[in-house]
Amino acid sequence: MKRVSILSFVVFVLINVNTLISQNSSSKQIIEEKVKNKSISAAGVVLSSQKLLLDLYSNREFELAWKDEKDRKDLIVAIQSAYDEGLNPSDYHIEIIENLTKSNYKKLNNEDAVELDLILTDAYVLYASHLASGKVEQSKIRKEWDIPLNTKAYRVDSLLAVSLKNNKIKESLEKEKPQTKLYKNYKRSLKKFRKIVSDGGWNKIPEGETLKKGMADDRIVKVREYLALEQDFPMVLENANVFDEELEKAVAEFQDTYRTDEDGVIGAGTLKLMNVSADEIVDKIRINMERARWLPPVFDNDFLVVNIAGFYVKRFTNGKEVFYSKVIVGKVHHETPIFKGEMKYIEMNPTWTLPYSIATKETLPKLKKNPGYLNDKHMIIMDKNGKSLDPNNIDFSQYSRGNFPFILRQTAGPWNALGQVKFIFPNQHSVYLHDTPSRSLFKKKDNRAFSHGCIRLDKKWELLMSLTGDSWDMDRINKVLESGETTRIDLKEPINIYLFYGTISYGKDGKMYIDKDVYNRDPAVLKALNTPVF
Q1: How many whole angstroms separate alpha carbon 14 and alpha carbon 16?
Q2: H helices within 275-425, ranges in order?
Q3: What are the start-end ranges of the H helices in 81-206?
Q4: Exposure class string for 233-249: b at 16+ Cβ within 10 A, else e
Q5: Coil, strand, or helix at residue 242?
Q6: Where are the alpha helices (DSSP H) in 408-521?
Q7: Terminal-to-terminal C-alpha distance of the chain
Q8: How far is CA 3 from CA 7, 12, 17, in A?
Q9: How distant, in Å, are the alpha carbons of 79, 121, 125, 195, 441 from that of 116?
Q10: How far apart are CA 256 and CA 155, in angstroms?
């Protein structure tokens, strides 16, 4: 009996000694062991920032990083506010962090203190990265997005180390957010429409006959209720079911928001837009906030931006919009690419060398039927060395898209597909801004996607004079046009131009516009944005 008791005592002692040894392993030893694993995990989660975790903790000799209570609290508050950035706090371990911080930090054993530390570090690194350059990997959504990914002069682990040293966690994350006016506008709109959602949103307006001024209909009351929420249109107590002049103006204002014809009449198209839910608008804002994180966090003092989905080009100087013009962009399957370029020169009375794809897909079939087509369109045909050829001496029937050896060029003149002027920012896509003889297409409001990828410009001379300052006016422009000579104008100061795709934009007065997702790009971004990180 004594022997059994002694044996039990020995086992008890051994178990407790092992437990004590485990408990007395220093936090430094536990961190070093964990971060040197091939796969670093904490609290049952494989962490995202594997390489950065090893570098960061190695540089601090595996000391705990989050011993200061203020740092921990500041990070928790910052992560909770990810919701205001259109992001999901759950992507940054918020539930795990809140659970681990319920206990008194000073009473945590070393193992739990390390788990919390690694989770906090991973959360900071991930959230800072998403604020700076987006959660969604743009190139995986569309390979055509060629605006360079935001890069910092420092690594996120270095940013964290400095922030911890100075107790500036909250401030450092704030600085990682885009500082552009566009992003701030998105945040303002997100707050407004989330408030509408939390208050119950708006009710759908039933279908029925077209509503217009002078009519009385019970559905008009719902229209008024909708406009009161969407654009702060004042409600009336008397004759709320009557479509009066003030309501007509409000409907036209709403139609302008969606860039549709402003006739003040609620037909099937306008009714469909009014029945877009507030939740859907919130998602659309979040999508565009993500796109804004793909752009530079601060723009140049002077730059041009083409919003492909908004069908416009703007120039901003010192933060102010100084030029605006409608544009026509690439149609579906000939999409205008997204990239950053540098506009260097302007060419008046331009010639147009047809891209090989257009020459073989569209022009060659016409040449097979009518060799005189080139003369009709003021085009010349050349060999690869630039020698002019007589089209009447060429048997076009023997050529196809795979063996067409010629160059087609349209001469300068009012017939030219590029119009009277083009604005060049050299790029791999051979895309530029140019005039067009087809001016009537600028009258279309809700869809101006008609080109082969280049950007057709409405206010051509206004842009030329905006870029050249006092050196060019209409008298000088007209003299060059009358000469018919191709004339190059080098810009004294090249200007950056961003070809961007955004389905929500803002006017000078801060009014929000909801643009058509002409290339159907929004759903893929939303899906990726909503996909949990862990």
Answers
A1: 5
A2: 278-294, 356-358, 364-369, 373-376
A3: 94-100, 110-133, 138-141, 156-165, 169-176, 181-198
A4: beeeeeebebbeeebbe
A5: strand
A6: 460-468, 474-483
A7: 55
A8: 6, 14, 21
A9: 15, 9, 14, 34, 60
A10: 44
Question: What rounded mean pLDDT belongs to the chain?
Answer: 92
315 pairs with which residues across the strands?
304, 323
Please give the single-letter amino acid code of residue 352. W
Whole-angstrom Cα distance, residue 354 to residue 320? 37
> For 409-435, what is the mean pLDDT?
95
**Rg, the chain, Cα only:** 31
- Decide: 334 and 368 in contact? Cβ < 8 Å: no
Element at 497 (helix H, strand E): strand 487-500
For every residue of 196-240, which 3-state class applies, written as one string?
A: HHHCCCCCCCCCCCCECCCCECCHHHHHHHHHHHHHCCCCCCCCC
The whole-number average pLDDT for the span 101-113 is 93
Half-sphere exposure of 31 (CA within 13 A, CB side): 25
Residue type, 85: E
Going by pLDDT thresholds of 50, 70 and 90, the confidence category of residue 63 is very high
